[in-house]
C-alpha cells in the first residue's frame, strides 16, 4: 500500500470517527435516506407508464441519496474542519492537499454506495424489484455523480460561515434536486421547455443514468420506455454523461475559486 492510499484511508478513518460523534450529521447521512425508503411503501403496486411507481421512485432515490451522503455531508465536514483549523493542521503534515480532501470524499462516496446497495436489496426483497439490467452503467453514473457533488460541496463550504449554517446553505440545492431531477415525479409530467431546463439540474443526469441501468429501458422516451441492450443503454444516456461532464467542469472551477483552507479573517 503506497503513501497516498495510506493517507486517504487515515483521513477517511478520522472523518468516520468525527461523523459518528456528530449525531446531526450522522442522521443526515444515514437516517434521512432510510426515511425516504420507508415512504416507498404506499406506492407499491401502482403503475405509471408501464413501470411500478415504487420502483420508479426508488430508482430515483438511488441517485438522490447523493445529496445526503455526499453533498450535505461534505459541506458540513469541510466547513467544520476549516473553522476548527483541522484542515490547516493537516496541511502542515506530509499529506498532500488532494489526499486531505480525497479521504473525506472517499468516506462519503463509500457511505453513499452502501446506502444505494441497501436500497437495491430493499427494492428486490420488498417491492418486487429486479437485479440491475446494467450494473456497470449504474455504478459509472453514481461515481461520476459523487465526484460532481463532492466538488459542489467543496465550493459551497467556502461560502458557508459556520458548520451550524452548513445544512441551511445546502437545503436550497437539495430541494432543487428533489423537484427538478425527476425524483418526486417523472420529468415527462412537465412542459417540454421545463423538461429541458430540469435536465440541467446536476442530479438529473445521475437519475437518468441510474434508471436506465436499473430497468434496462430508455427513460428519455415517453410512454412505455422501450427496452435497450447493453450498448443501447449507454447510447440512450450519452447526453446525461455530457451534462455530468459540464457539471464536473463547473464544480472544479467553483471549488478552485471558493474553497478555503482557513477561516476568513476579520
TrEMBL record:
Predominant subcellular localization, coarse grouping: membrane
Top-rank taxon: Bacteria
Biological process per Gene Ontology, one example term: response to antibiotic
Residues that span the membrane, as ranges: 24-41, 61-80, 100-124, 136-156, 168-187, 234-255
Localization of this protein: Cell membrane; Membrane
Domain spans labelled ABC transmembrane type-2: 16-262
One Pfam entry name: ABC2_membrane
GO MF term list: ABC-type transporter activity
Family (UniProt): Belongs to the ABC-2 integral membrane protein family.
Stated name of the protein: Transport permease protein
Native organism: Actinomadura macrotermitis
Amino acid at each position: 500500500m503506497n503513501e497516498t492510499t495510506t493517507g486517504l484511508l487515515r483521513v477517511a478513518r478520522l472523518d468516520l470517527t468525527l461523523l459518528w460523534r456528530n449525531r446531526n450529521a450522522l442522521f443526515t447521512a444515514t437516517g434521512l435516506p432510510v426515511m425516504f425508503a420507508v415512504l416507498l411503501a404506499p406506492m407499491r403496486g401502482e403503475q405509471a407508464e408501464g413501470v411500478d411507481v415504487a420502483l420508479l421512485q426508488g430508482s430515483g432515490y438511488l441517485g438522490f441519496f447523493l445529496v445526503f451522503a455526499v453533498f450535505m455531508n461534505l459541506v458540513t465536514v469541510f466547513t467544520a474542519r476549516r473553522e476548527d483549523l483541522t484542515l490547516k493542521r493537516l496541511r502542515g503534515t506530509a499529506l498532500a492537499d488532494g489526499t486531505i480532501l480525497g479521504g473525506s470524499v472517499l468516506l462519503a462516496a463509500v457511505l453513499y454506495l452502501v446506502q444505494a446497495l441497501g436500497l437495491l436489496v430493499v427494492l428486490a426483497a420488498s417491492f418486487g424489484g429486479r437485479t440491475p439490467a446494467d450494473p456497470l452503467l449504474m455504478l459509472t453514473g453514481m461515481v461520476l455523480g459523487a465526484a460532481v457533488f463532492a466538488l459542489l460541496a467543496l465550493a459551497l463550504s467556502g461560502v458557508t460561515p459556520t458548520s451550524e449554517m452548513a445544512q441551511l446553505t445546502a437545503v436550497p440545492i437539495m430541494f432543487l434536486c428533489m423537484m427538478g431531477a425527476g425524483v418526486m415525479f417523472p420529468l415527462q409530467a412537465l412542459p417540454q421547455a421545463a423538461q429541458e431546463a430540469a435536465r440541467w439540474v446536476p442530479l438529473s443526469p445521475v437519475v437518468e443514468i441510474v434508471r436506465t441501468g436499473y430497468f434496462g429501458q430508455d427513460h428519455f422516451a415517453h410512454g412505455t420506455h422501450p427496452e435497450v441492450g447493453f450498448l443501447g443503454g449507454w447510447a440512450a444516456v450519452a447526453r446525461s454523461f455530457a451534462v455530468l461532464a459540464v457539471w464536473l467542469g463547473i464544480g472544479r472551477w467553483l471549488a478552485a475559486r471558493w474553497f478555503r483552507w482557513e477561516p476568513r479573517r476579520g
